[in-house]
Amino acid sequence: MTTVISLGGSIVAPDKPDVPFLRDFLALSTAWLEEDPERRLILVVGGGGPAREWQKAYRETARRADPDAQDWVGIMATRLNAQLVKALFGELCPREVVIDPTAVGIFPGRVLVAAGWKPGFSTDYDSVLLAELFGAGTIVNLSNIAKVYTADPRLDPAARPIDSIGWAEFRALVGDEWVPGKNVPFDPVASRRAQELGLRVVCAAGRDLPNLRAILEGGPFTGTVIGG
After folding, report:
1. Which helix or strand (DSSP H or E) is residue 101 part of?
2. Which of 41, 145, 190, 201 has its CA 20 to 30 A from that of 170?
3. Strand intervals (E) in 144-205
């Protein structure tokens, strides 16, 4: 059984690596894997604070900002974060960090760690491609929000949390176009492909590790189910 987690950079490195979170996430993940030898884990790691800050520096400095160049800056931040996560799992993750989800081949070990691939989408899309490749029907999308809202609650006091939503309704919320650094619960390009594949995405707060454990075990949890 393969489980795919899109591990938001905002929880791995909000401004720098969150060592207490990483320590606890590693402990939970390894314990969960040890309980069943058939379990495998794919972690697709985002860029977090470093990606946003480096992209901002590029926009504010470049004579003419290019979207692809901005994406590449963010992609490199995902690769640094992913390399850290891969190293933490040691022998459980013998393969180097995946940077092209279409050229993975075999899955050695118990853990596979992936990072950003190329401009045009976020690591959410990479997680969809890997879920398709390894037959995972659900992606657990961990970020710094507990649920998807009807609008950005920081801007709209009338925004409501959503327990479950279909893909058509969710895509109406996030739109169809990718913008480098765009802050949405699940990126538009990934959402389109996930809908085509009939995937289920669970959006939940990444730092709530007891809640993550409940998700992994199929128990009651706090979060938003997209396409379920």
Report:
1. none
2. 41
3. 148-149, 161-162, 164-165, 200-205
Query: How many CB atoms lie under 10 A from the CB of residue 112?
Result: 27
φ, ψ of residue 150 to 5 degrees: the values are: -65, -20
Q: What is the pTM of this model?
A: 0.93
**For the purposes of burial, counting CB atoms within 10 Å of the CB of 26, is it exposed (0-12), middle (13-18) or buried (19 or more)?**
middle
Domains of the chain as residue ranges with CATH: 2-226 (3.40.1160.10)
* Integer Cα distance of 177 and 196 in angstroms: 16
Integer CA distances (angstroms), 212 to 95, 140, 141, in order: 25, 9, 10
Residue 129 — left, alpha, or beta (φ > 0 → left; ψ -120 to 50 → alpha)?
A: alpha
Task: Calculate the alpha carbon distances from 122 to 117, 189, 195 in Å.
Answer: 8, 8, 16
Q: Which residues share a beta bridge with 224?
A: 203
Going edge to edge, which strands form the sheet with 164-165?
Answer: 111-114, 40-45, 2-7, 138-143, 200-205, 224-226, 164-165
Supply angle C-alpha 209, 214, 215, rounded to 5.
Answer: 95
Q: What is the three-class DSSP state of 214? A: helix
